[in-house]
Amino acid sequence: MIGHRITKHPILEVPKKKKVTFKWNGKSLFGYEGEMISAALIANGIQIFGHHPKDNSPQGIFCANGQCSQCLVTAHGLPVKSCMTPLRDGMNVQSVEGLPSLPHADKPVPISTIPTKDIDVMILGGGPAGLSAAIELGKLGIKTILVDDKDRLGGKLVLQTHKFFGSIEDSYAGTRGFEIANILEEELRKLESIDIWLNSTAVGVFSDGIVGVVKENSYRLIRPRKLLVATGAREKMLSFPGNTLPGVYGAGAFQTLVNRDLVKSCERVIIVGGGNVGLISGYHAIQAGIEVAALIEALPEISGYKVHADKLIRLGVPIYTSHTILAAHGTEKVKSATIAKLDKDWKPIPGTEKSYPVDTVLIAVGLAEVNEFYLKAKEWGMDVFAAGDAQEIAEASAAMFTGKIESFKIARALGMAIGEIPAEWNEKATILKSKPGTSRDITKPYAEDGVFPVFHCYQEVPCNPCTSACPIGAIHTEDDTITGLPYQDDQKECTGCLNCVAICPGLAITLVDYRKDKEFPTVTLPYEVRREKVAEGQRVAITDKDGAILGRFMVEKIRSRKKYPGTILVQVKMEKKLAKRAAGIWYQEKQIEPSTIYEKEPLPNEAIVCRCERVNAGEIRKAIRDGIRDMNQLKALNRAGMGACGSKTCRPMIWRIFQEEGIDLGDVTDRIDRPLFVEVPIGYLAGIDGGDINA
Predict the structure, then answer these.
(1) Of residues 150 and 2, which shows the higher confidence score?
(2) Which of 574, 576, 593, 649 has its CA 20 to 30 A from that of 341?
(3) 3-class SS at 252?
(4) Among 90-94, 438-442, 621-625, which is the least confidently predicted range?
């Protein structure tokens, strides 16, 4: 690490970038050309980007995805979202303190006519669903524009360093997310009928069937015959005291910083949420050299894949179910966080509070569809389709199939004679969307001779790359289904090739080899974290399936498979009574001890619900108790939902408060969504390149 930069990563290559200088509030700093301003600031140790004009509360990055305006700064005098604005040499960046003054317009603003471009299909979003749909449309020669607001294709795939589940043939199982993004992009760019617009933001869809897009600092109007919305999902937020402090991130923002920007955004994190997003983020944190104090989940059981949870447990991360966060503490940024156990009625149990010294609270409590473009286009009577998370929250592998399925529907709606949608596409999409099954133990091999894999996979999930990776076809799944637990065919003799160990997305396969020494067999374990911890000749702590340490054993050899880069294979010799129990390598040797002293009882009414306008839960509760049942009226009374994000974050929490107050949601009038969903300088709408009316 250099400062807050990640200069060495167990999975990702660190690219060489051009170093540039920029100014932050008059101070000269260094960054990399083209990286987002927010990444450059955090890499320089700056977490506070400004203060809110209402109560002077510190503001920092939250979503890193352009969905909110917490990271607002000015660049060369213009307000910009720092998470969406590339850094340039000599850029003058300043924090926003108080209400900015409007520029003085001393001359009439010239308004240009903006031509409208007609196209067969427009796709909003270049993630797994949008890419897969575009590839199928491109194969059919259908003229399509693919719009994405990032500087590269792939969506959330770009942030994923772990190997994907599913099957090798259908969804690139065993391949890492960012590699899948590269594969799909390479295939797409070969297709001549697809026009790719990167760094382009769709800002609204209008009643005349036109979509407004800001591309390369100019406003474009597109009239598609068919519109596919593949805009993904945004993260849900929790309301608790301190929830807006710099250092309280959405999981996507955290992954963006550590995996896309290679910025070590913190030293120690606590994770709230035990779904796949939270579990995977914890793994990404450890890969980036960040300590994970704990992961908590309100449900009695982890809701994500057990293999993801097991990876963390075996690395030394404590996981607490039936727990919630009570508060984040700090004045300018997070200094600590307090958690507590929940009773059967979801109430914190007094006396169970624990406070952890952390500088980041990572919120991963679920996702909400980014579907406002779809709903508004539907309202306007446009021929619109949705795919991926914009259609239904699921894994990226499922999003690829929904993208394919919707592309066929679009082609048929355009009058192309292409037959029926392949039945297996719908079947596979359904399977890949399925929730994990119940956990159950499987019988370990009885033999203590030869060589064979041991499967530490105890939950039915859609995943079977080990069956394809075995060169002799010795590995099968129960009932030969993609969700069945794996086992080895007793009629076939394992060769010890290690392919299954290297490809497994859950790192849930070890290999035990008795051939050289029956009393002290060699055990091979997969490992993807800090390499310096497992050097040959070093002693490492080996754990069982539940994370209990079996003992410390010397690393005999480090191996790898060229076909499966990033996963190293650590070999140790162990007593035969322990060999089949070995499941992982302990990483966080010193767990972070919490304090049991909780000095201040949290005040839920003070928890901020509307981040943009600083409206707390107590203000909203009072309005509801006074008889308010209309979100629009609520907005008029206390400005809840009035802010720049357009209520993307606070709306679900306001609905929840209505429910908590015993109000039937059928009696509540939802707010009215306006056509523009993303902030845009008014100069763009006037046809002024760059959007500056004073230019």
Answers:
(1) 150
(2) 649
(3) helix
(4) 438-442
> Do the beta carbons of residue 399 and residue 129 sit within 8 Å?
yes
The arithmetic mean of pLDDT across residues 347-359, rounded, is 93
DSSP 137: H
Q: Which of 345, 365, 385 is the last residue of a domain?
A: 365
Give me the pLDDT at residue 105, please: 60
Confidence tier at 683 by pLDDT (50, 70, 90): confident
Residue 347: other Cβ atoms inside 10 A: 11
3-state DSSP assignment of residue 56:
coil
Q: Which two tokens stand for residue 486?
A: 């794996």
- Are 127 and 224 in the same domain? yes
β-bridge pairing 233-235 and 27-32: unpaired
DSSP string computed for 591-659: PPPPBS---S---GGGSEEETTTTEEHHHHHHHHHTT--BHHHHHHHH-TT-STTTTTTHHHHHHHHHH
Six token digits for residue 66: 């352009």
Task: Report pLDDT digits (tens) over 116-146.
Answer: 999 999 999 999 999 999 999 999 999 999 9
Q: Does 110 map to a domain?
A: no
Among the listed residues 205, 494, 254, 225, the one whose alpha carbon sits nearest the alpha carbon of residue 373: 205
Instruction: Indicate if 360 and 378 belong to the same structural domain.
Output: no
Q: What's the CA gap between 154 and 160, in Å, rounded? A: 10
Q: Using the CB atoms, write b or e for 25-54: b if 16+ within 10 Å.
A: eeeebebbeebbbbbbbbbbebbbbbbbee
- What ranges in 470-560 are assigned the alpha helix state H? 499-503
Per-residue confidence at 99, pLDDT binned at 50, 70, 90? low
Please write the tens of the pLDDT for every residue from 405-418. 999 999 999 999 88
